[in-house]
């Protein structure tokens, strides 16, 4: 079965290619590949993607082979391109001053052969930049793309440290943004302070998605919030479940609080059941 190579371009776009020439490759190696308008440099993410894994995503007939492993000359050309990007960025900002809208330029990326130039920007709301694109194309004499990013994409491109003290997941290993919902925060008893579970991108932390399965599994052994039990001769409600420490917070009608272990709570339930029967 044919295996495909998965690569990521400097723009963040991912693609699949064949290694028909059987180059000796491994992850994190730079390769030169064919793109719609010429050729570009990309970094290998995965060297062995089976065809059945991508058949539902793309038409394998449209997949090209990698042209070569990036040579010394290619890497020198890449450095030249990066310097050109810095100059282009300055010119872009000068031209932007004449426009009737406001945008924040995040990144400027040339295709390796110079046949395409992409500007990534953030802005409040949608912007009609069609006239601006024509001006940019006239100035830089190449195919122009303006890509408006989301808050999460901004964080990935700018980088930084999360509250855990480590580099953002989206910068290091996270290839795809997972959906993170308020329900996940609710499942994990984290609704009391949304600011503490929001990342610098303004969205809920990706960590909530990673840990959701653990909380859902643990919750099977715990009571529902608000469940009523009789404890110490008074009516109490389940206020909070501490899944890590196997403890349950109870609150009485007079707001007196007690903490019991999961085993103790189950014994309380058994005693309540005996009294009812």
**Approximately how much helix is present in the residues?**
25-40%
Number of helices: 8
Poorly predicted sequence stretches spanning 5 or more consecutive residues:
none
Structural class: alpha+beta
For the sheet with most strands, the description reads: 5 strands, antiparallel
The rounded distance between the terminal residues' Cα atoms is 65 Å
What gross morphology would you assign?
Answer: elongated
Number of strands: 12
Order of helices and strands: EEEEHEHEEHEHHHHEEEEH
Q: Report mean pLDDT, rounded to a whole number.
A: 86
**Biggest sheet, spatial arrangement of strands:** 2-1-4-3-5
Strand content: 25-35%
Molecular structure report:
The N and C termini lie far apart (65 Å). Strands 2-1-4-3-5 form a five-stranded antiparallel beta sheet. It has a four-stranded antiparallel beta sheet with strand order 9-10-11-12, covered by helices on one side. A three-stranded mixed beta sheet has the order 6-7-8, with helices on both faces. The protein is elongated. The chain has helices at residues 51-54, 72-96, 130-140, 151-158, 169-172, 182-187, 207-219, 262-276, and strands at residues 3-9, 14-18, 30-35, 38-50, 66-69, 104-110, 116-122, 143-148, 228-231, 234-242, 247-252, 257-261. It has 277 residues and is α+β, with helices and mostly antiparallel strands. The protein is 31% helix and 29% strand.
